[in-house]
Design a protein that fits this description.
Number of helices: 0
Strand content: 35-45%
Mean pLDDT: 76
Number of strands: 9
Helix content: under 10%
Structural class: mainly beta
Oligomer: single chain
Shape: elongated
Radius of gyration: 18 Å
Order of helices and strands: EEEEEEEEE
Largest sheet: 5 strands, antiparallel
Low-confidence stretches: none
Distance between the termini: 33 Å
């Protein structure tokens, strides 16, 4: 089996299963219909994108029913102005992000017993898988 490389950029598509199709060398392979051979399935681990949630400043925040593919108890999310950006994160937010726990078909992420001490605003929920090093702000790449 030969390894397939999709480039150095992080995959930011929604978590799920995708059909992989093949296009023979010698063709331009620039149009979807030129990929005529089904070569298998690709499972992309991660949350579905564009899931909107609301928390209230000064109260405990629980983000429930996060949907996605193969989410793990050790995955993390954090609220940032922009995912994949470096910096200090939001003042008043726990530096390590939100710990996840799996509940039935989705995941619930919470701060534990602490309340949110951040300014009201609109932020991105950025996800990082349990198998990736997410110890620094900016390593959470999917929002």
């Amino acid at each position: 089996a030969l390894p397939i490389c999709f480039g150095a950029a992080a995959a930011t598509a929604t978590g799920g299963q995708y059909q992989m199709c093949w296009c023979a060398g010698g063709y331009s392979c620039s149009l979807a219909e030129q990929f005529r051979v089904n070569m298998g399935m690709l499972t992309l681990v991660g949350p579905m994108v564009q899931q909107h949630r609301t928390c209230v400043a000064g109260q405990r925040c629980i983000i429930g029913d996060v949907l996605g593919q193969d989410l793990s108890n050790s995955d993390m999310i954090i609220a940032l102005d922009t995912c994949s950006s470096t910096g200090d994160g939001l003042p008043g937010m726990i530096a390590s992000g939100l710990q996840g726990e799996i509940v039935s078909s989705g995941a619930t992420y919470h701060f534990g017993t602490q309340t949110l001490e951040i300014s009201a605003g609109t932020y991105r929920l950025c996800w990082c898988p349990s198998f990736a090093p997410c110890t620094l702000i900016g390593q959470q790449s999917v929002d």
